[in-house]
Amino acid sequence: MAVKAPKRRSERLSRRKATLINKAYELAEFCDVDVALIIRNRQTGRYFTYNSVDLASWPPSKEQIASHCPYH
After folding, report:
1. What is the Cα–Cα distance from 26 to 33, expressed in whole angstroms?
2. 38 has which bridge partners?
3. Per-residue model confidence (pLDDT) at position 3
4. Which of 38, 50, 36, 43 has the alpha carbon at shortest distance from 12?
5. Which CATH number fits domain 6-68: 3.40.1810.10, 3.10.150.10, 3.90.1150.30, 3.40.1390.10?
6. CB distance 50 to 37 below 8 Å
7. Model confidence over 12-71: pLDDT tens digits?
């Protein structure tokens, strides 16, 4: 499913990123949950983020997540 043309790949990334962010927003709004989303473009190293809440304590640190995760 790899896209070879750089422009087409960039367009696909942009569309899929927008869809993913919209789904994260909907999840937060409709399910009353906090959502943090991080997307990293492997080719450029650029990061895109979405946070459903604007708090200094959100998103939690990796250590906080690991302490609450039963599979760590």
Report:
1. 10
2. 49
3. 58
4. 43
5. 3.40.1810.10
6. yes
7. 999 999 999 999 999 999 999 999 999 999 989 999 999 999 988 888 888 888 888 876
